[in-house]
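Researcher: I'd like a structural prediction for the single chain below. Treat it as a standalone chain; there are no partners to consider.
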Amino acid sequence: MVSADASGDAPAPNAPLAPAADATPMIAQYLEIKSANADSLLFYRMGDFYEMFFDDAAVASRALGIALTKRGKYGGEDIPMCGVPVHAADDYLQRLIAQGFRVAVCEQTEDPADAKKRGPKSVVRRDVVRLVTPGTLTEESLLDARAHNFLTALFRAPQSGEAICALASIDISTGELIAASVRLSDLPGELARIKPGEVLVGDDLASDADMRRLIGEAGAALTPCPRAHFDSVRGERMLKERLGVATLDAYGDFTRAELAALAGLLTYVEITQVGRAPLLRPPRKEIAGSLLVIDAATRANLELARSSQGVRSGSLLAAIDRTVTAAGTRELASRIASPSTDIALVNARLDAVTYLVNEPRLRQTLREALKAPDLARALARLALGRGGPRDLGAVRDAIGAAHGLAAHLLRAGEAFGLPRELMGIAERLAAAPSGTAQSLAAALAEELPVNARDGGFIRAGFNADLDGHRKLRDGSRQVIAGLQATYADATGVKGLKVRHNNVLGYFVEVTALHAGTLTSPPHVETFIHRQTMANAVRFSTAELAELEARITSAADRALALELDVFTTLIAEVLNEEQSLSAASAGLAELDHFAGLAELAAEKNYVRPVIDGSLVFAVEEARHPMVEQNLRRGQATGFIGNDCKLCDESRDGGTRVLVVTGPNMAGKSTFLRQNALLVVLAQAGSFVPAKAAHIGIVDRLFSRVGAADDLARGRSTFMVEMVETASILNQATARSFVVLDEIGRGTATFDGLSIAWAALEYLHEVNRSRVLFATHYHELTALAEKLAHAANATVEVKEWRDEIVFLYRVVPGAADRSYGIHVAKLAGLPGPVLARAGEVLRELEKADGRPKPADLADDLPLFQATKQPAGLSEPSALEQALTNLNPDAMTPKEALEALYRLKTLLESEA
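Model: Treating it as a single chain, here is the predicted structure.
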């Protein structure tokens, strides 16, 4: 039985009921199946309903808002029961999965007629055919067509030094498989990038409170699995078997930890799919450093996939999405979530977009032809036995679209040449199996039902035997009408009718007045009396009984023949799995490239220069979301701004730009838009600017705004400091850092001190490219003292006690914050504004703080080589202690570590 877990994780199992003496055969069968699936709600198939009993029924009725009834007795008490119709099961499954439940779907695996042959009280055989969990969904109604739904297995490698986590992720709705290793400190950002629906961990790791919190913050369901499932040898063997290879060398150099994660992942898929093998694309090994690292806070601050309200609308992805297929949107989302650091790869992708920007007619032709079905998800459903005729139709139509698109691309290539990325796509599309498409076109009807059991999906003329059974089935009305006319003529009873009901089947009916005609010679031997009613008498005939049997068997036989053809077609499709998977990936990539080219042409984006330098130089850059959200008809459009960091003309140039100016003037927009340009450029997109030169970035940090984290007992200022600490501890010379209003959450002098020290540290130690917005005007003095820092401010104009925001960033520093002016724009009452002005004037008179220039002259610069007290480099012994991970060590490893610590202690004594 199942009960909801207060922690918000998957529901916790209850102990199954012990069999009782009064258990009926059906209840006994239910309890046996339930005991094997105690951690899941059991959808027990009974005719046209999935029924739930006992605690499952009580839990499901509350979760779904459906009536709780009862059925029979068990142990002397009523059995709670509720159920959902089979035809509407997907809707109820979606609601249960969203609430964290797992569902075991138990189907009838035997025909009721066969069960009766075993005895009148025999129960139809049933068994669980799949476990439905957040990470194993394949149904269209349960998935977001525009987003991947990853199931991720996480394995923490036992080793000295910083803990390494291996992750293996699969989207069983498309077959995409990924493996990677990350530092434990980067795990939250990695989970935010993958955004799995469900995370698998060993039962030893599941008890780690920090790990449970990290997974919960990623919005994923946590599922503990036996530690024995995470075995690297098992993972290597399973992967080789699934891929049909003797070695994995062609797919990448997988670590033992990654193979262990793959073992846990594939074992769980095998269990939940009850032996059915999902579609599996060749695994992709993500090499450390190959992707732009973006932590979870930065992803949220920049609103890459979701806005601050948690919805797609208002995000970067929504602003730039011009794809025409769901698969293309998923591809775009993946590239925005995982920008590359490979300069050659980024430029190759930009070549493809550039080509399509410069060929508008070809681009429009491709976008029209791209409106094809979702081949990847259709293939996945067919592989798992959950596909229907429409999925076969999707394969047929997608192959046709692939061939048409390949022809367009190859013709363009003959005339002008194609970039490498587009040529690769054309070759994959052209290789889609035409023979399979021809088979599907010949067999499938134009109008296709959702479910194969509905029949009617095989084209007339494809199978002569099927056509014959259909003719008898569909022409039964004419046959019966002809027989009725024959009987009426033979008996002379013009009112004779041939009718049908579920009890008697087909029968002859006459009024009581004419019954004597049929019971007298010569008709008495033909018509057999069946039933006498008040006003009518009913008869049967041998001919009618034979015809009824033929009509009934014709319908059953026609459906059986269709299902045989259906099975044959699926086998043919799955036999071409590799080429079809490659074609589906090509369709998604082409759609995403064409969509980015359409965006660039529509919004006047430019191709960025991407190289290995440390330059960040953009002209008239714009914020992609804000620009599109400006009201139509507004007098002025978005005002672009330049940003130049690391200009080589100035001895290494400006690395740190201190940005000042009043609230509402556009500082945060300026900061965010430049960070978004990094994401777009390294994802292979053009950028909203007049010109852009971006040296490749390894890590992107954005601390813009903060809020309380009440669940973890953190104040706004604490959240701000945690995010700032993460930046200062991880940023490198190739990183891009955006910081907005550091130190504002505490007392003025405390905040100024922290902001001052952080700014110096970023300049002297991290040496990153930094945009640093602040209201502390004292910090502007640092630009004169730090060799690679400069000031910028957002222009405003004062006019008759009013301020006008110009939204233009220019060199220089602001000398005022204009807070009272902004308060006036917000609508504060006049007396409050007047009093605030008085208080401000008095405070400015009494302010004894030193001037910015005095501070800069009096304070020595932060020296990276001379750490302040308490910040000295840790000793070898301290470092060794820090690197220990006792929970992940075997007894032997712990003993060896103890001896090493003793040796280090003696050497330092």
